[in-house]
């Protein structure tokens, strides 16, 4: 299986795995509680598939992790924007 190389997604998946491990939870139990296929969770934490936001929220909530905590990690957004060709929108004058 190919791995996703998006740096933000990698950081997000790593953060999710860290949070799951800290709570001592089993991935299969989280998937069952979220009512999703356990392969989706494994593919996420193995960085093989980037799920929809709604799936991330389901996984997060089933693990007892508030979604804002899932996205709360250090990340170099400026570098990411440069790599991805993202520019800051400017308001119209």
UniProtKB/TrEMBL annotation:
Domain of life, per lineage: Bacteria
SUPFAM superfamilies from the xrefs?
lambda repressor-like DNA-binding domains
Q: Which CDD domains match?
A: HTH_XRE
Q: Cross-referenced Gene3D superfamilies, in alphabetical order?
A: lambda repressor-like DNA-binding domains
Quote any Pfam family the record assigns: HTH_3
Annotated ranges, domain HTH cro/C1-type: 16-70
GO MF assignments: DNA binding
Q: What is this protein called?
A: XRE family transcriptional regulator
Species assigned in the record = Flavobacterium macacae
């Amino acid at each position: 299986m190919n791995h996703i190389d998006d740096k933000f997604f990698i950081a997000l998946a790593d953060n999710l795995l860290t949070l799951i491990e800290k709570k001592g939870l089993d991935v299969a139990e989280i998937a069952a509680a979220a009512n999703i296929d356990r392969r989706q969770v494994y593919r996420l934490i193995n960085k093989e598939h980037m799920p929809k936001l709604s799936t991330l929220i389901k996984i997060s909530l089933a693990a007892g992790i508030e979604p804002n905590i899932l996205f709360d990690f250090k990340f170099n957004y400026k570098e990411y924007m440069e790599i991805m060709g993202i520019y800051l929108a400017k308001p119209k004058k």
